[in-house]
Amino acid sequence: GQQLNQSPQSMFIQEGEDVSMNCTSSSIFNTWLWYKQDPGEGPVLLIALYKAGELTSNGRLTAQFGITRKDSFLNISASIPSDVGIYFCAGQIETGANSKLTFGKGITLSVRP
Amino acid sequence: NAGVTQTPKFRILKIGQSMTLQCAQDMNHNYMYWYRQDPGMGLKLIYYSVGAGITDKGEVPNGYNVSRSTTEDFPLRLELAAPSQTSVYFCASSYTNTEAFFGQGTRLTVV
Question: For residue A3, what is the nearest residue in chain B, using CA coordinates?
């Protein structure tokens, strides 16, 4: 099946720093999504991207749909302690009723105060 | 507006036992999904439904069954629990089959 690659598995940053995360695939995707999961909770949608080249912001978060449609990145600016969690990328290759989301393995972000 | 509600939150099963994980959504979403999450492995799709009365297999359906008799409910059934089914299970729903909203999860341990 399709795979989405997220690395590294863990990232450690200092409060106030910016951080960027990548998600790549060998397949072309039509939709890219970024989710955050807090400990003991379900994933929460942060940003959805639908067009190649699209750049979308949600507060301190910015995500881009790569021009090749094989990658996406998420940037968090001026990190704060509550940014701690697991960040998943997800994508859809097709559209339509039976298309399914593929998830990356996630990146665990730690923020040092 | 409760969103996606999963019960129970935690469960311990013995090998060979059966149980049903409940999922309900109050957003009138047609699409519903069951995922399992194992450490460091992301989310794997077990089953999904595009509407009441319609279900289909995802990536890892073996050992599970689902039904969708109403728009609101999408229970997941384990008939003969095995240690490999120890995982965190997430139910999700979507209006557009893209932006999925997740429940809080059910942590299942099979011993």
Answer: B42
